[in-house]
Specification:
The chain is mostly helical. The chain is 70% helix and 2% strand.
Amino acid sequence: MVKGIHKLLYILLTLFLGLFVASSFLIRAKYLYAVYGDTPVLEKQQLLLFIVTAAALLLAGLGMYALCRRLDRFSPKIIIPAVLAASFAVQTAIIFLFPRLPTDDSQTVLTLAQNILYREDYSSFQTTGYLHMFPFNFSIVLYLKTLLLLFPDNYLVIKLFNIGFTLITTLMVYLLYKELNVKSRSRDYGVLILAAFYAPALFMNNLIYNDVIATAFLTSALYFAVRFMKKVALKDMILAAVLLAIGNYFRSIGAIFLVAIAITILLQIRRIGVKKSVLALVVTVLVFMVPGWTQNLLLQTTGKVEGSVNANSAPVYMWLNMGVNQSTFGFWDNRQSYTIYQRQAGYNKEKSTELFKEEISRKLSEAGAGGLLKMYTKKLVWTWTEGTYQMERYGIGNGSSTFGRGMGAVGDKYSYTTFATELFKGDSTARVGLTWAMYAMKILMYGFILVRLIGGLKSGRFTEIPLVLVVLGFIAFYLLWEIKSRYLFPIYPLLLVMSYMGFKDMYDALFTEKEG
């Protein structure tokens, strides 16, 4: 029965990835803020350009893999620090070359952190305040407040800490790969280098928000959970539980990782043992709740808020309502949902919940089965094949006060200009070329993951089940939720791990026997 469940999960992910790869030969998913504003774009694929770009990347990948194999003679104690140091240098250069200023939520949470630190101003928790509506973002406000307290009040400090978290994620990608692929006879430095110089991760340090931090904690949590499942040492699971709780505190999609870890443990309960499995799950769930409980308790006991901060926060139905939108297939709805909560419901959670339920029901009824199928297909394809995690806006940035056109245009500036900001200005060849490369690379990655999944189905090898469950969880969740391709950023490490496994399987099948 367990093997049957494993097969079903692999088949499900294979079908979704097959859809993404197949659709890329017909449709191009695009996000180019400098041209279209803050809106998703699906257009007819430029097939020749796509094939040429993908082929060039594949050839470059084969060349880099061959070079990385030559590093096997060097100790990890030499290569790992050297690669991380080189990655640090590149990331530092990027934040100086592209000095993007915080905007939107990023600017808001930074301003709130300054207000709390310098003026003890917690008024944002009051009705109409940002934290009244989005109390879950108090975690990033508290984090920024701490940095401002301990270090100079400077964007550079915050971005340097982002780089630190990205380097942790890079190391965890390598360790997770090695933990899942223990039979590998090589040192596999290629996956370390891939993670260390993966462009979306390098550029997203420019975003002063919770994405980079949560990704580091959640990836680390999954690594230690996998270690627990292999070595059955409770200390690994306790550490995984703590990291998972912190990651979820920064970004609430940690629940998807929690469910994936729990299911994987239950699937292996005979090998792990009932007692240790139950204990691990109980500890993980209890620790998972601690940050939220602690935050509410401290805010109430210190008199900063009256009652639970979640009492009248925006309900989950607001994001579900955004997710049902035929015109932008679940992307930002130009404040329509905000208006329902703020104006029609007067910031009342219970009242707005009923209004959102009515609105969702109306939309579903008007769309009909055909309309919904079309919308959800577009939603899946754009979210999962856009490929850049919207780094073009949040990482590279734009140099004008209001870039973009239409209702999606939002303020976006640099601290100063450099030759790099000029080179990547607007719809320049450099900016468009980089987004094309990341798009084609994402499709290639899906292709390599398919190689790994199909190989697993044929051989009965299902070692990547925890990763498969997390990815399927994200697919299911963002099928219903409001979408941004940036929301998939926390699982880029898992996609790197699985795609590198598939790439290596392909390489071994094509070249190793001939070399031998």
